[in-house]
Amino acid sequence: MPDDSAGDEDAASTSGSAEPLPTATEEKPEAKTDGEGYVGDNSEHKEEYPDPDDDIGGISTPPDDEEMPLADHIEEMVLRLAVVFLFGAAGTAIGILWASEGISFIWSDVVPQATERPPHLYSPLELWLTRIKLSALLGIMIALPMLIYQCYLFMRPGLYPNERKYYLAAVPTSVVLGGLGMIFSYIVVLPILFSYFTFYSEGSAEIAYALGETFNLVITLTGFLAIVFQIPLFIMLAIMLGVTTRRWLAQKRLYFWTAFAGLSFMFTMDPTFMAPIFVAITMILLFEGTLLIVKWTGRE
């Protein structure tokens, strides 16, 4: 007679080794995805992204560029501006020592027949304020190169090598152009303007130039023409960096002429309109002369 116990043991072992069937109440585990269509373990399909500092397709970050906290940037900027302020303050202090001699020298060069037309004071502090203004102009002249250099040091980590080359070339060029603008104002513009003012008023009134108002005009024109003489540099840099083209500037010249006239009448206004007209003509000549030079060099 066959052994039923052995059959029962085999059935029991078979039923014990079989996996239980999922019931209706059991939930299947959700499939994992990384958002790119991969299902399964994310580590197997993790996409490697390149380092942003690596050269990708010919586009790379500046070699010295590094991330810094905003507070560190602000601290560095304040320290560099403090250096510029110290240079300007030192130039102003030196200027005050010889301000009186400077006033006499400029007056004799600018005002026609200066010995017959001495400066007149119409307020108690007019002489001192004029000395301070003239000394401040000297301080600005001394601080300007340092300001440009400190700006370069601040921006240097974020500049590409070609941009550094352009900036370093622009620094001395800017200083030279600013100096030329001041010299042009002192030698050409101011003598012509004051000769016209004298001729315009002669015969109808006794001429008595006020010291403060006269030097306000001298300082304003000198400083403004120092900025105006930066026009060639701005145009050349914009074309070299690919911001614009000579052809586009030539096509929009009437807009630039209008802007030049507006700026001239805004910053160098006088009742005779001679100063703004003279400055506007100077700006237009610088603009057109730069375009001619660019065309001659073959840059379009």
Q: Please state the average pLDDT score.
A: 79
Rg: 38 Å
Taking pLDDT < 50 over at least 5 consecutive residues as the criterion, the unreliable ranges are: 11-17, 52-58
Share of helix, binned? 55-70%
Beta-strand segment tally:
0
Write the layout of secondary structure elements.
Elements: H1 4-17, H2 70-97, H3 99-110, H4 126-155, H5 161-201, H6 211-228, H7 231-240, H8 246-251, H9 253-267, H10 274-297
Helix pairs in contact: 2-4, 3-4, 4-5, 4-6, 5-6, 7-10, 9-10
Structure description:
InterPro entries: TatC (IPR002033). GO terms for molecular function: proton motive force dependent protein transmembrane transporter activity. The chain crosses the membrane at residues 78-99, 134-154, 166-197, 217-242, 254-269, 275-294. The chain is mostly helical. It has one domain (70-297). It contains 10 helices and no strands. The longest helix is centred in the middle third of the chain and has 41 residues, at 161-201. The termini are far apart.
